[in-house]
Specification:
Strand content: 5-15%
Oligomer: single chain
Structural class: alpha+beta
Distance between the termini: 70 Å
CATH class of the largest domain: Alpha Beta
Length: 718
């Protein structure tokens, strides 16, 4: 048996579908109907209905916009080989058999023209087609084919001419099965109504849905008029009719519209689309007061290169200034940390370093991470990302903000997937890992916390530079090498030749402009904010004077850093921001925020006038920040009442409490007292000193000091 030729067009079919200007073809040319009477070389002779003739070059004839064949069907459709393969095997064999019989009727040979052999006498092409069809019907009837009449043979020939081999397949085998089977239409309508009533509400069980369906049938058709199907049949009917997200025992859907189709976000230039989001990490860190806490991470991911452009860790409650500073951090080169190896410098990366250095001298001491000024930022609808500070920062950099649709996490798929990669590739190898959910959390995750927020920030930045930016990503493909996955740095280098690089210089004044703004009066004693007094000589000429901004009722523009309240910045008439320190800044040696300040305010009662009370608050705050050190293995257990909100600031990576860069990166195995006990004792000492009529600093013992983090030596301990 010869192989089937699905794409073959029968002879009778070819005569009805001419595709060229052959003899007898009727064409439309210059608005008239012509018949092709001769073709001589490249010349076509045409004869019109009125007896006129024309001789036209074939190229000129086919170039006429109105040229078309008249009275003929269009080109033969493409063979439906995929549909033929989807038919049952028995139907395919039957169609192939019909094909051989029809070929024999039309050409005399079962294999078609050119197959070789001698036609049988009853199928000789010289005989009438009707006689050949009758002979084939008698042959099929003798072979036992059911309903093998002449009419059946002619019908199969017509279907073969119209649809090819697919027309010989019994179409009854291709009828789609009904989702509801033989279920009563009234029951189907009742189930759909029950699903509609449950949409957007809390999910119940299939049993409850069956009860509701019975009530609908009772109200619509009367008691007992329509029988409710058995539970198993009803469950199958619900699964066939309901949206998978609307089934009982699935999460409730509040949206009444069908889910949107998932579409992959495409970006062709670095910075064309940057996705920003915040999440709480699955690791415990040590807060500034020594308590374990889960930090929040805000990152910006470039869709075109999958690069992590910036990452900022906060203790609790990411603020608008964090998002604004994150935006500025994307556009400036990342400095190479002193403790990082020189191999992480951008000079050693697979980038056109010399050309970049000629454009931006800051890249000479930068780390091997992309520097991108975002064109569009995709954010969720959180208060941080739609705040005035963040929107103003975006406007300053010429960046448009695109809020993601509500309840659509796929709109920020790249940044969501990056969060998962950080948890699985980095955080699970760090002490204090909590797992992705409470069922995977160890019983002593809080006691395992070892790293402070600055140490975690340094570890995260180094991991992004070393691992993530040089790890191959399956979604990054170069057009010249489509089978090779690239790293984010390689993709950035490949796209630099297309998009180019334009440096953006941010001065100290630009960073200050990104800070949150508030409005306060300048009194004779300075600026008073939340029981703190800020004063500087630059205020002397403006004490008690209204500001030039009349719309603010004489108040002055003040910029504050939420994580470091030891100084503020005021805009004076020269249109410059001037730093105004807290009068007790020299006494408090570490940054603090409003949470730490409010914490000591509740613990220390006022025993004197305003000035003495502010001095006491500064003394207690300094002692708390000095005595609160990173937790060690001997951390005392804490009760739920002790777990109060922690501060949003962290100790610097280097300073009075840190050792040199060559010291080993091991936390000192020393115990420390509970921070609340230290706070209460400090408050008591402050009260005694005030009662004695003198205020002086007491030496605070150095407890729980730690050295700089060294990833190489720390890796040996993991």
């Amino acid at each position: 048996m010869a192989a089937p030729d699905v794409g073959e067009v029968p002879a009778a079919r070819r005569t009805r579908r001419p595709r060229r200007a052959e003899l007898g073809a009727r064409v439309r040319f210059e608005g008239r109907i012509w018949e092709v009477v001769a073709v001589v070389g490249a010349t076509v002779r045409l004869a019109g209905r009125d007896g006129g003739t024309a001789s036209v070059l074939a190229s000129h004839l086919f170039a006429d916009p109105a040229f078309e064949f008249v009275g003929t069907a269009g080109p033969a459709p493409a063979p439906r080989w995929g549909l033929f393969e989807s038919a049952p095997a028995r139907e395919r064999e039957r169609a192939l058999a019909w094909q051989r019989h029809i070929r024999e009727i039309e050409t005399g040979l079962p294999g078609g023209p050119g197959s070789g052999g001698t036609p049988r006498p009853e199928y000789d092409p010289s005989r009438l087609l009707a006689d050949r069809e009758q002979a084939k019907a008698d042959e099929l009837a003798a072979l036992g084919w059911p309903q093998a009449s002449v009419a059946t043979v002619r019908r199969m020939r017509r279907r073969y001419r119209a649809q090819g081999l697919w027309g010989l397949v019994d179409q009854r085998s291709r009828r789609p099965a009904s989702r509801t089977g033989r279920a009563d239409e009234r029951v189907v309508a009742a189930v759909l109504e029950a699903l509609r009533r449950e949409r957007g509400r809390s999910k119940g069980t299939l049993t409850g849905l069956r009860t509701l369906t019975g009530q609908i049938l009772h109200d619509a058709h009367g008691p007992g008029a329509v029988a409710l199907p058995p539970a198993s049949t009803f469950n199958r009917l619900v699964h066939a009719l309901a949206d998978p997200l609307e089934l009982p025992a699935r999460p409730a859907r509040t949206a009444t519209t069908p889910p949107r189709p998932f579409t992959t976000t495409v970006a062709l230039r670095p910075g064309e689309m940057v996705q920003v989001d915040t999440t709480r990490l699955d690791v415990m860190a040590v807060a500034a007061d020594g308590r374990p806490m889960r930090p929040e991470l805000t990152i910006a991911v470039d869709v075109a290169t999958r690069s992590v452009l910036a990452a900022v860790l906060c203790e609790e409650g990411t603020k608008a200034v964090d998002a604004a500073l994150l935006l500025a951090e994307m556009a400036v080169p990342h400095p190479l940390r002193p403790t990082w190896p020189a191999a992480l410098a951008i000079a050693h990366a697979n980038l056109p370093y010399q050309r970049l250095l000629a454009l931006d001298q800051r890249l000479e001491h930068a780390a091997a991470r992309p520097v991108v000024v975002p064109e569009t930022i995709v954010v969720d609808r959180g208060a941080v990302f739609i705040s005035h500070a963040f929107l103003a920062a975006c406007e300053t950099l010429g960046t448009s903000v695109q809020p993601a649709p509500p309840r659509t996490p796929t709109a920020k798929g790249s940044v969501e997937r990056t969060f998962g990669a950080i948890n699985t590739l980095l955080l699970q190898h760090i002490a204090g890992y909590t797992g992705s959910n409470p069922t995977r959390r160890g019983p002593r995750a809080d006691a395992e916390a070892r790293f402070t927020l600055p140490q975690l920030q340094d570890l995260l930045d180094e991991w992004i530079t070393v691992c993530w930016q040089n790890r191959r990503h399956e979604a990054l493909r170069h057009p010249v090498l489509p089978k090779t996955a690239l790293t984010p740095n390689e993709m950035w280098g490949a796209l630099l030749g297309i998009a180019g690089y334009v440096p953006l210089t941010l001065t100290r004044a630009d960073w200050l402009e990104l800070l949150p703004v508030r409005w306060n009066a300048v009194t004779d004693r300075g600026i008073r904010i939340d029981h703190r007094t800020y004063d500087a000589p630059c205020l002397n000429a403006h004490r008690g004077q209204p500001s030039p901004t009349a719309s603010r009722r004489g108040r002055w523009e003040i910029h504050t850093h939420p994580h470091d309240l030891r100084q503020i910045w005021i805009r004076l008439p020269d249109d410059q921001l001037h730093e105004v320190p807290w009068i007790h800044r020299d006494h408090v040696h570490r940054p603090f925020n409003d949470r730490a300040w409010h914490h000591i305010q509740t613990a220390l009662a006022r025993r004197g006038d305003r000035d003495h009370h502010e001095a006491d608050l500064a003394d207690v705050l300094d002692q708390l920040l000095r005595q609160a050190r990173p937790a060690t293995s001997a951390m005392p257990p804490q009760t739920p009442s002790d777990r109060e909100p922690t501060t949003d600031t962290a100790a610097p990576a280097s300073g009075p409490d840190t050792a040199g860069g060559q010291a080993p990166a091991r936390l000192a195995e020393q115990d420390h007292g509970d921070s609340l006990d230290a706070l209460e004792s400090a408050a008591t000492r402050a009260g005694h000193r005030e009662e004695d009529g003198e205020l002086h600093d007491e030496p605070v013992p150095h407890r729980g000091a730690f050295a700089l983090y060294d990833a190489a030596s720390e890796a040996d301990q993991w």
